[in-house]
Write a structure and sequence with these properties.
Layout: E1 19-23, H1 28-38, E2 42-47, E3 67-71, H2 79-88, E4 92-95, H3 101-105, H4 109-115, E5 120-125, H5 140-147, H6 166-191, E6 195-200, H7 201-208, H8 210-217, E7 237-241, E8 247-251, H9 255-264, H10 280-291, H11 296-303, E9 310-312, H12 323-328, E10 331-334, E11 337-340, H13 364-370, H14 383-386
Parallel strand pairs: 1-2, 1-4, 2-3, 4-5, 5-6
Antiparallel strand pairs: 7-8, 8-9, 10-11
Helix pairs in contact: 1-6, 2-4, 5-6, 5-7, 6-7
């Protein structure tokens, strides 16, 4: 359902004209909605009175950039009707409740599709809509634990290393929800029929490990940490500490890159050790000792311009200032917040950070006008009265 009479503006992205309703939550749902908003969709976030149970000051929550916000109390008598009014005019709805909650609130798929058969109804959960654990609470680390992916990460003699919430929530969750929503949107526009997208973090994270499962079946991957080509077990694919306590990342997998790497650090005699697993311990020790002899900046300068596949390990604060990322504009500053710029990039419909984080309830009036839902506006409250702490 493309918004009639709404021309695309420069920087809106390829989803200009697509309307998305996001039922406020935390983690992967908001990130997925942010990605759709970055791509140009008109995302209206339905915030609850009082805000979420977890979260940061709304002024700094960049996962709510490029969105607009209204406040609806779904437990109030008129609450579900307001959400259904939005769903009737939307192309996509995203929710991240436990299975059955949206139905109990009166805004489940059946109720929404009765008003809008073309609607793509995206459901974001950790365990999925069905299965023995579907009704259980959880977070990223538990979801990825069951898929086998958490057990792959870290040193063999230490507990598995937690990869922040990037692997489960955002890679296995948000990105799969967005892929599913866009595929279903394509189908809805071709057929006039919407559908439900069940995006479970356990499914997406397991799917990410497809290549590893193939390698294991072929005998090229051991089912244990720190023993394989890509999990830190290989001495020329990993990280090494430098003299000043920094780290360098080495990814010299191919023979010519490996040889260039060894040549630059002065260990040409170890070229034959590349495929000799019996020498990997010696190779690791000598490479580690060499890296400890200079600072991170000195090694960075040495490898500059080479194909040795070596890079400094930067902090979050350092990353935006790296010359390559700065030249590409990988990070951007908006409203005083340094943040990743929208990705990927488009030649004909470029994207941009159009607005900062949506403040809860701040856009009720404009959404009511633009979407043609006057009942969204409470006559007793101005938009400013609906904005929560953080403004």
């Amino acid at each position: 359902m493309t918004t009639a009479g709404t021309p695309e503006r420069p920087g809106n992205g390829p989803l200009g004209g697509v309307r998305v309703v996001e039922l406020a939550g935390i983690g992967p749902g908001p990130f997925a909605a942010m990605l759709l908003a970055d791509l140009g969709a008109d995302v209206v976030r339905v915030d609850r009175p009082g805000g979420p149970g977890l979260g940061i000051d709304p002024a700094y929550d960049v996962t709510n950039r490029n969105k607009r916000s209204v406040i609806v109390d779904l437990k109030a008598p008129e609450g579900p009707a307001r959400v259904l009014d939005l769903a009737e005019r939307a192309d996509v709805l995203i929710e991240g409740y436990r299975p059955g909650v949206a139905e109990r609130l009166g805004v489940g798929p059946a109720a929404c599709h009765a008003r809008n058969p073309r609607l793509v109804y995206g459901r974001m959960t950790g365990w999925g809509q069905e299965g023995p654990l579907a009704d259980r609470a959880g977070h990223d680390v538990a979801y990825i634990a069951l898929t086998g992916t958490l057990g792959m990460i870290g040193r063999p003699d230490e507990p598995p290393a937690v990869p922040a919430n990037l692997l489960g929530d955002y890679a296995g969750g948000s990105l799969y929800l967005v892929v599913g929503v866009l595929a279903a949107l394509h189908h809805a526009r071709a057929t006039g029929t919407g559908q439900v997208v069940d995006a479970a973090i356990v499914d997406g994270t397991a799917h990410l490990s497809a290549m590893i499962h193939g390698m294991m079946a072929a005998g090229g991957w051991q089912d244990r940490r720190g023993a394989n080509l890509l999990d830190g077990g290989c001495p020329y694919y990993g990280t090494y500490e430098t003299a000043d306590g920094g780290y360098m990342a080495v990814g010299a997998l191919e023979a010519r890159f490996y040889e260039e790497f060894l040549h630059l650090i002065g260990l040409d005699d170890l070229v034959p050790a590349r495929k000799d697993w019996t020498r990997w311990g010696e190779l690791r020790e000598r490479v580690a000792a060499r890296f400890k002899s200079r600072t991170r900046d000195e090694w960075t300068a040495l490898f500059e311009g080479s194909d040795a596949c070596v890079a400094p390990v930067l902090s979050l604060g350092e990353a935006p200032h790296h010359p390559h990322l700065a030249a590409r504009g990988t990070f951007t500053d908006h409203g005083g917040i340094t943040q990743p710029a929208p990705a990927p990039r488009f030649s004909a419909t470029p994207t941009t950070v159009r607005t900062g984080p949506a403040r809860p309830g701040a856009d009720t009036g404009t959404v009511a006008r633009d979407w043609g839902i006057p009942d969204l506006v409470n006559d007793d409250l101005a938009d400013d009265d609906l904005v929560t702490e953080g403004d």
